[in-house]
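In the previous chapter we treated chains in isolation. Here, by contrast, the input contains four separate entities that must be folded as one system, with a combined length of 1992 residues.
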Amino acid sequence: MAIKTPEQYLESLRDGRVVWLQGKRVEDVTRHPHLRTCAEGCVMDYFFRQDPKYRSLLLEQDEKGEFYDFVFKPAENAEDLLRRREIIQLMARTCFGMPAGAKFTGIDALHSLTAVCRRMDEELGTSYAPRVEAFREICKQNDPAVAVAMTDVKGDRSLRPSKQKPHQDYYVRIVDETKEGIVVSGAKAHISLSPLCNEMIVLNCRAMKEDDKDYAVAFVVQPSTKGLTFIAPQPEPVEEGNYFDYPLTGHRYGADALVIFDNVFVPMDRVFLKGEWQFAGPFAYMFANFHRVSADAYKVAELDIMVGAAALMAEYNGLEKVPHVQDKLSWLVWYAETTEALGRAACQNCLTDLPSGMAYPNPMISNAAKFFYADNFHQALKLILDIAGGITVTIPSSKDYFNPETRHLLDKYLGGKEGVPAEHRIRAINLVRDIAGTAHQVTTIHAEGSLSAQRLSFFTLADFDRYKVAAKRVAGIEDGKEHPLYSSLPKFPALTWD
Amino acid sequence: MAIKTPEQYLESLRDGRVVWLQGKRVEDVTRHPHLRTCAEGCVMDYFFRQDPKYRSLLLEQDEKGEFYDFVFKPAENAEDLLRRREIIQLMARTCFGMPAGAKFTGIDALHSLTAVCRRMDEELGTSYAPRVEAFREICKQNDPAVAVAMTDVKGDRSLRPSKQKPHQDYYVRIVDETKEGIVVSGAKAHISLSPLCNEMIVLNCRAMKEDDKDYAVAFVVQPSTKGLTFIAPQPEPVEEGNYFDYPLTGHRYGADALVIFDNVFVPMDRVFLKGEWQFAGPFAYMFANFHRVSADAYKVAELDIMVGAAALMAEYNGLEKVPHVQDKLSWLVWYAETTEALGRAACQNCLTDLPSGMAYPNPMISNAAKFFYADNFHQALKLILDIAGGITVTIPSSKDYFNPETRHLLDKYLGGKEGVPAEHRIRAINLVRDIAGTAHQVTTIHAEGSLSAQRLSFFTLADFDRYKVAAKRVAGIEDGKEHPLYSSLPKFPALTWD
Amino acid sequence: MAIKTPEQYLESLRDGRVVWLQGKRVEDVTRHPHLRTCAEGCVMDYFFRQDPKYRSLLLEQDEKGEFYDFVFKPAENAEDLLRRREIIQLMARTCFGMPAGAKFTGIDALHSLTAVCRRMDEELGTSYAPRVEAFREICKQNDPAVAVAMTDVKGDRSLRPSKQKPHQDYYVRIVDETKEGIVVSGAKAHISLSPLCNEMIVLNCRAMKEDDKDYAVAFVVQPSTKGLTFIAPQPEPVEEGNYFDYPLTGHRYGADALVIFDNVFVPMDRVFLKGEWQFAGPFAYMFANFHRVSADAYKVAELDIMVGAAALMAEYNGLEKVPHVQDKLSWLVWYAETTEALGRAACQNCLTDLPSGMAYPNPMISNAAKFFYADNFHQALKLILDIAGGITVTIPSSKDYFNPETRHLLDKYLGGKEGVPAEHRIRAINLVRDIAGTAHQVTTIHAEGSLSAQRLSFFTLADFDRYKVAAKRVAGIEDGKEHPLYSSLPKFPALTWD
Amino acid sequence: MAIKTPEQYLESLRDGRVVWLQGKRVEDVTRHPHLRTCAEGCVMDYFFRQDPKYRSLLLEQDEKGEFYDFVFKPAENAEDLLRRREIIQLMARTCFGMPAGAKFTGIDALHSLTAVCRRMDEELGTSYAPRVEAFREICKQNDPAVAVAMTDVKGDRSLRPSKQKPHQDYYVRIVDETKEGIVVSGAKAHISLSPLCNEMIVLNCRAMKEDDKDYAVAFVVQPSTKGLTFIAPQPEPVEEGNYFDYPLTGHRYGADALVIFDNVFVPMDRVFLKGEWQFAGPFAYMFANFHRVSADAYKVAELDIMVGAAALMAEYNGLEKVPHVQDKLSWLVWYAETTEALGRAACQNCLTDLPSGMAYPNPMISNAAKFFYADNFHQALKLILDIAGGITVTIPSSKDYFNPETRHLLDKYLGGKEGVPAEHRIRAINLVRDIAGTAHQVTTIHAEGSLSAQRLSFFTLADFDRYKVAAKRVAGIEDGKEHPLYSSLPKFPALTWD
C-alpha cells in the first residue's frame, strides 16, 4: 500500500476504538462534528500525497522503488531536517497555522526511539533497535497516522512516579509481564490527535530513578486495543460551522485526549523500553530536541496569521501611519522572523547521534527557539489587541450582520478606512478575537514543553566551564581550569611596551 | 420612590426599547438568556440597597430625610472617593470580579458633567450646570440605572470627526436644532449595560477642533427614545447555565452594545454641551479621571480571583513549595496589591475642582494605576497559565465528569495532591481557562482607555519643568529657568572646605 | 546641646576611629578627599537645622521646650511618616538625588528596635525596651549621626551563620559575655556613612534558628571603640573636583564601609538583643518596613533627575516631537510618579504596632514600592540611554572643551537644537553617563533589600486565603474554608429567574 | 609587503596626524597611555597573522601566490561570512570581548562600497566600482588598518542635513569640487579606532533627498591628511595599569573620536559617491547588513564573559544550587546562545547581491540579532548584578587588599564558599562592576545602529503582504490580493463531508 488515500485513512479509523466526548461514546470518529474538525487537519497528509506537485517534497522511494512518506526516513543531515520543517510548514500554512497532518507528533517519537534504542543496546546489551526498525518498516508499508503519548497525568507534581498517593497509576507503568509481552496501566494527558491515529507511541515524559523502574516503559499500541479509553477534551464552545464569527476556533480541535490504559497488553516486539530506567531521561530528552523544532516550524505559520491580523486591523482602522502602531508592528515582525530564524538555525546547526548516525536538531537552539516564542507570546497578544481595539469583544454576531434589518447599520457604522468593506473589517476583528483565546495561549506555553522545561534545558546544556574560563581570563583568576576555546588563545595584551 | 427594588428596576426595562442580539429583536431584555446574565449584575445595586446591613455604606439622606443612593452625591473629599471605591469593590467581589451594579459607568459621567459644566458656565456664560443639577435630582428621586455612551465608532482613526468619509456619522453629531431641542445622529460602540439602563448619558470621547463643532455634544437620553437602536454584542458562545465548565464566562455578559442614533430628538433641558468644542476635551478628560479609578477598583476584585486561581492550581498540583512557582505567585501578589495601592492612592491624593468644589481622583495616579494593571495583565496571564498547566485546554467536559461510565476514571486520573478531590481540581482548571479568554484581555487593555491614552496622559500631565530643573541643577546648566520645588533649595554642597 | 551645628558635627568625627581607604589609614575623615565628599551629604542635616525656614518641618520640642530632631520621635500616625518622607526628599532633592543627611539609615533601625523590643519584652519578659528609650533620649540630647550596620559579610550564602566554614565569623556574633557587657566579633558589609557617624546601631540581617543563637545580637556602638576597623570602599575613579565631566559621581561617595569587629566590647545598657534568636527575624523585618519606604522617598528625587536628563536630551537633540521619544518619556514619567505614589501610599496606609503604639509603613506596599522601582530601573536606563545617543560615551573631555585650540570645534559640532549652547548639551550628556554607572544600578537593586527579598515578602505577607476563597467562590469549590471579605457576601446571582 | 608586522603597523601610525585627548595634542598615538590601550586591540590583527597556526583561517593567496588578509576578499557565500565571523570571534575572545583588530569596522564599509557602487554604476552609468576595486587592491598590498566614519554629528535630529541651523556642517558635505577632487567639511562622531587607522572610509549615515545632494558623499582618506582633526573621547577614569580593580575597563578604550573635516581635499580616485543622493541610503543600508552581523559576532565573546561572571559569582557566593539563581543563569545562557544562533543564522541564510555577486548577511536576521541582544542587555545586567550582590560597589580597593595591614582582614571576611580564595572572589566582583558600566550599555544599544534603527528595518523589510494574505485566508476576506506562499495552497478544509 505504502501511501494511503484520504478515504483509506478515514476508513482505517472505524475500528471500534473507545472514545468519549462531552459525555457520549463516539460511534464513528470521522463523523463526529468535533472529531471531524480534527480529522480535517489529519487528512491533509494523505490529501497532499495524492498531488504530484508535492511528490518530490513529501515522498521517498525505497530500494524496490516503492514510494513511502519521507517523514518515516531517519534524518541524516541538516537538509533532511530542513525538508521536514518545510513539510510541517506546508501543512500548517494550509491548515490555518495549526500543527496538522496525521504524523506530526508521532514522527518525533519515532526518531527519538531510533536514536536512543541504538545507544541503549550498545550500552546495556539489549536489543531494542531492531524492534524499532521493524516498526519503522511497518510504517513505511502501512502509512499510518502516528500519535505520541508522552505526558502522564502526574498527580502530585512534587512526588516521583513511585511515590504517588493514593494510587500508583498517575504515571503509566508495567503491572505485569509474561514472555509474550507486558501489561500496562495508567493514564496520559493531552495526547494530540490520538483518537484519530493508527499507531500510538507511548514514551516516558521524564527521567526516572531506580525505584521508578516500573514506570520506565516505552511501546507502541493501536487505538482499538482492549483496555484503552480515550476521553476527548471539551471543545471550544463555538457554533458548528460558524466560520464567520469563529474563523480560527471553528476549525481548531486538537482532540488532545486523556488516554487511559487499563491493563493493556503489549506484545514484546512492540516494547522499546522495559525497566531500563537510566534511559527514560534520554528518550524524553531526544524527543524534545525534535519536537521543539517541529513546534517552532508550525508556529511560524501561526505567527504569519497573527502579524497579518494586526497589520490588517492597523490598515482597516486607518492607523497604518501612526508611529506607535508601526512600532508595534515592527516588534511583531521581529518576533515572527526571529522565531523562523531560530527554528531554521536549530536544523542548520544540527548534531549527529553517533551510534545511530541520525541528525537531530541542535538541542540548545531548539530549546532557545521554543523559549523565545513562548516567552514572548503574551507580549504579542497584548500588542495585537492594543492595535485591534475594544471592538474585538463587543462586535455583534454574524446573525445581526446577515439580518437585513440590521445589516445596513453595521455596514454603515462598522466601517473603518474608506474603501474597506465593513465585512472585511468585521472578519478581521473576529479573527483577532479568535487568536487571543485561551487555547492558543496554553498550547504556546505548554505544548512541546513548558517554559520551565526550557530553562532547565539551558542550565543542563550550558557549557558553564566555557563561560567561567572566559570570565576568569579577564578577571585574572588563575585556578588551573581550562577550556579549549579559551586556553589556546594568546595572552592579551600581546604587545609589550618598552 | 428614591430607592428602587430589584423588581421595580426590572419592570422599568420593559419599555419597548429596540434591542437586537444574534439576529433577533429582543422582546423583553430581562428574560433574554444573555441580557438576563447582564441584568444579574445590574440588579445587585437594588438588591444590596434593600439590605439594612449595607445601608450606611450605600445610602445618603437628603434634607427631607429621604434616602437616596450615595453614588449620586458629588464627591467632596478623599473619604467620599474611597467610599465610592468600597461600593464598587463590594459589587465586584460579589459579582465574580465584574464591574457590576446599574450605575457603574454612568456615575463617572455625571461627575464629569458636574465639574466641567460649572467651569464652562463660568468661562463662556452658558447655563448648563443647573440642567446637570436638575438631572441629578431626578436621579436621586428615580434611582435609575445610568449608562454612559462615550466611544464613537470612529471610522478612519487617522481622521477627525468632520473629515470622515464616505459619511459624516462616524461620531455622534447634531444634525438639527430647534428651540425645543436638538436632533442627533451617529453611533457609539461598546456601550456597557446600555440595553439595561434607564438613562444613558452621551458624552464626547475626544477633544474637538472648531470645525468639529457639530460633534461637540453631550446629553442624556432614555433607551426607549424614538430613533435609538441597540445591537448587543455576540455573547461568549458558552452553553447557557453551564457554570461548571464556564464558571466565569457563564456569568459574564456586558451587553456592550452598539448604539445607533437615527435622528434622535433630545429636549433642551437634557442637553449639556452643544457646539462648545473647547469643552469637549475637558469632558472626556474629567470622565477619564473618575473612570480609570473606578476601573482600578473592580479590577482588584478580579485580581483576587486570578491570584487565587493560580494559588489553587499550585496547591492542587502539589507545586506550592516549588521555588519558581512561589516566585510566580509572589509576582502575582505584588501585581494585585500594587493595583490596590495605586487605586487607593488616586483617591487619597485627590484634587479639587475649584468652580464646582468636587473632589476628583488624582489624574496622574489614576492613569498610573490603570496603566500599571493593563500593561502587566498579559504577564499575569502567562504566569497563571504556566502554573496551571496544559490541562487547562485539554480538560474533558463536565458531561464526561457527570457521566457514571467515565466519572470514576476522571476522579482517579485527574487528581493532584493527595486529599484534593478531583472535582475541585477540575473546577479550578475551568476557572483558569475562563480567566484567560479574549474578553478579559481586551477589556483590561481597552475599557476605561487604552494604554496609549494613558501614555498620552502621562506626557500631558507631566511636570517636565520640574524634572528638567532637577537635572540642570546637577549638570550645572544655568539657563535662568526655575521650578518652585528646586529653586528654593540651598546650594549643594553647602559646606565650604578651607 | 540638642541640635548640633555643622562644625560641631565635623569636630565630633575627629576621634581616632580606624578608617582605611585605598590602602591608607585616614587621619581625619573630614578632610580626606573622598570621605569629605560623603560628609558633604551628611552635614546637610545640621546645615538645614540651622535655617529657621525649615524649623517647623525638621524640629520638635520636648517637654522642657528643648528642640530636638524630629526624626528621633517615634512615628505615631500617617502624618508623622509623611513628614519623615518629606524630610528625606528635601535632603535628597538638595543633594542631587542621594540619600543624604547624617541619620538616614540609623533612624529606621532605631524605630525597628523600638517596636520589636517592646514586643519581645512582653513575650519573653526581657527588659530591652527601657534601654532603647534611654538611647533615644541620648540621641535627642546629643543629636548624633546614626548609622546602621545590618548586612553581614555572609560567606557561603547557602549556609546558616553557625554552619559557615572555615571560620565562624561571617556573621557578627557574641564571643564572650560578662556581667558588664558582651564581646562581639565578625564583619558587616557596605555600611553606609559608617565612617562618618557618631553611633552605629548593629542589627541582625536575617532570621535565626536556635543553633544560631550567638548570632542573634543587636547593640549600638561608637566608631572609635577599640576593635572596630572600617575599610571604606574603592571610590568611583573620578578626578577630584571635576564636576563638569562627573556631575553626579563627582559628588557621590557613600562610604559604605566594610566594618570589622575584632573582640569589640559592648556595655550591657547598649545591648538590645542577646541570644533571643526568635526575635532576630522581627528586627530585620521591621527595619525593612521602614527602610524600604525611606529608600522609595529619596529615589523619587533621583528619578526627577533621571527623567529630567532624558527630557533635556530629547530637547537638546531636537527630538521632543518624535513619537517614540515621547512614548519613552511618558513611560519614564509613569515610572517616577508611580514610585512616588506607592511610597506615599505605604505611609498613608500605615499600620500600628500594638505594644509600642508606633506607626509603621504598610509592609506590603513598602515592599511593592521598592520592587516596583528596582525591577524597572534597568528598563529606565535603557530608555534614557536610547534617547541620549552614543555620544554619551564618546564625548571628549572637559579638558578639550576648555582648551581654546579645540573649544570652537566642540562648540560648533556638538551643538544640537538651534539655540541650545553646546556646553549645555555636553553637560547633559555627562549627566546621563553618570546616571547609568554601575553604582546607581547596584544600589537600586540591592540597597534596602534585593528583589528576592521583596518577592519573599510578598509571599509571606500575602493573604492567600483571601485569594483562594475568591477563586473558589467563582469556581464553585466548597471545602468549608472561609474568609471575612468574601464569606459574608450574598450569593451571586442573587436573582432567581422563574 | 602584503602582511604587516605589528611593528610595521605601529610605525605606520607615526605620521603627524592631529589627535587631541584630554586637552592635549598627542605626540605619538602608539605611546599615549590611553590610545596605546586601544592599539593593543588593533595590533592583534598583525600579531595573529604572524602565527602559522592561524594562517589558514586568516590569510588568502592571490593569483601570484602572495598572501593577503582574508577579510579584504569579498564574501562569495555563507562559508565566507561564517569565516569572517570566526575571525571576529577569535579576536574578541582574545581581547576580552572587545571588537578588536585593525579592520573591524572598515571591512564592512568596503563591502558596502563594493556591492552598492556596482549597482549604482549599472543604474546611473557612473564608474565608481573600478575605483573601489583599485582601493581594494591597495588594501591587499598594504594591509592597512581601516576605519569607517559613518555617523555625522547631526545637530538637530529633527532636521535633514541641508536644513540645519545655525550652520550647514552638521553632516559632512562637499564644499568644493575641481577636476582633481573634492573638498569636504563637517564632522563625524564616535569613529572607533580612527586615531589608529591607516585608511578611513567615509560614508553617509542616512538616506538623503535631492536637496541634501551635497551631503551624499563617500570617499576614503588617510588620517594625516591636511584639515583632519581627531578629538578622542574622555577615557574611563581608571588608574592606568590597574587591572585588578578594573579588569575590563582598564583594557577598554575604543578611541571613538570626533573627526573634524575642515576643507579636506580628496583626490577623485578616492571618491565613491558624489552627489548621487539616491544611493546614500543603499550605502548605509548595506553597511548595516554587514556591520550588525559583525557586532553580533563579537558580542558573543562579550556575553561569554558576562555569563561567566554571573556563574562565578553564583559559585563563589555558594548560590549555585539556589533555584532562582539557576533560573537567572538559565536565562543568561539562553540570551548568550540565542545571540550566537541568530548571528550565525544571518550568515547561513545570506543573500546575494546580483550585480556584484557578493554574499551579504540576511538583512532581516542581522537586524533581528542586533535587536535581540541590545533590547535584552539591560535585563541581563539586572540579573548579573542581582546575583553578584551589593558588594559590587562597596568592595575595597586593591590597595587595601595588597596592604599587609588590612589584607588578612579582607582575606578572612570577603571569602565566600569554602575553598574559594577571597582574591578570586574579589577579582570576580571587580569584573562584574566593570561589566555594568555605562560604556557597555551605550555601545550595546547604539553601536551598529540603535534599537529604533532596527525597528525601522523590520518595518521596511517586512513582507506585510504575506502576513496579510495569511490572515485573510483564515478570516475569509477575499479582496483579490495574492501571495506566492499562500495563494498556491489548496483550500482548507480539503475534505468534503457528505
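Residues 280-316 of chain C form the longest helix (37 residues). The two ends of chain C are 81 Å apart (CA to CA). Compare these points with the single-chain example from earlier in the chapter.
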